[in-house]
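Students often ask what a holo structure prediction actually looks like on paper. The answer is less mysterious than it sounds. You provide the chain, you provide the ligand, and the output is a string of discrete structure tokens encoding the 3D arrangement of the protein together with adenosine-5'-triphosphate.
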Amino acid sequence: MASIELVRVTKTFEKNDVIKDLHLTIADGSFTVLVGPSGCGKTTLLRMIAGIDPQTAGSVLIGGKDVTSIAPGKRGVAMVFQNYAIYPTMSVRENIEFGLKNNKVDKEERKRLVETISATVGLADYLDRKPSTLSGGQRQRVALARAMVKKPSVFLMDEPLSNLDAKLRAQMRLELIELHKQLGTTFVYVTHDQVEAMSMADNIVLMNKGVIQQEAPPDGMYHDPSNLFAAQFIGVPPMNIGELSMNGAKFGFRPERAQVRPAGQAGGTNPDHFSMTGMIVTREMLGSETLYQVRRSDGNAYMVKCLEDLFAVDQEVQIDVAPEHLFFFAEDGSRIRRDDRSYAEYMRALRGMRNG
Ligand SMILES: Nc1ncnc2c1ncn2[C@@H]1O[C@H](COP(=O)(O)OP(=O)(O)OP(=O)(O)O)[C@@H](O)[C@H]1O
Ligand SMILES: [Mg+2]
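The corresponding structure tokens follow.
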């Protein structure tokens, strides 16, 4: 087991700083998920930790020790890639054993390790099979077992589930959560899928363009985003964002926080709430909930999520969002919180757009 620390790390490709002056501490034994859009630098970061493609400047510490000059194979890390390469001509057993043979582990010990690990990942009955006779999820587990057998103190995974179908991916997510609990090893998991991040992480590190936007447990990420990027990246469907009549300022609310009722129903609206009427333009009945897209006369549309399917397309509805569920963002995307000096100004701007 080991913690990981990145200190003022920069990675430059052909004069292009993909990651600049990055600081990150990953706690020992945590399940940390690095998430962010394609090209934001997730794989680059993971490869620097593994030592496959070292940083241009700064240092990487594993277990408190600077590993900058230590070769990848000696860092105590194992990496599982998106396109896991398992050897098609070898059996499952041979695949798992491969690295051990290279490391000259004796035969008895190899046998014991392969058996424990294959039981852990649920492959005990498949040891003599060839990969071509396994399902996608089972092959994925061979790749995991092969990494685990080396007893790494840090487990690095780069989108290891992206080749699997949705159902298998959901199942493997649970298996990885259990595996992490069992092993107690530090897991660093990369994905561009925020659902995957939310479901597995103890701690989420959200990146954009090589810069960490926010670091928080899943509930903090969702309920207390630190900026506009985080607010829009986490959540399905994403947070609704609207413009305020104040240079570049924006407001937002989550689709499930809107109260929806038929327009014209009796009852006044609270001046501190965001209230609007609009027409339902789309309805997506998802089973346990229904999503409606509501378009206002100014052309802006907002998504709302309801537990009951009470409305129809072309129906006029009123939306109401209480102030505790409203978010405000300044022109530079930074969050304006309730205790911020300018909060009242944002509230006023919101009231001003009520009849607009
Ligand atoms: N060897 C390289 N040479 C030049 N540029 C590179 C190299 N590797 C990565 N980059 C650039 O660095 C940036 C970050 O790439 P990286 O692979 O880390 O992104 P990512 O977050 O893993 O994206 P994805 O979700 O698509 O896998 C990209 O703009 C990419 O084009
Ligand atoms: Mg990548």
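The longest strand covers residues 274-285.
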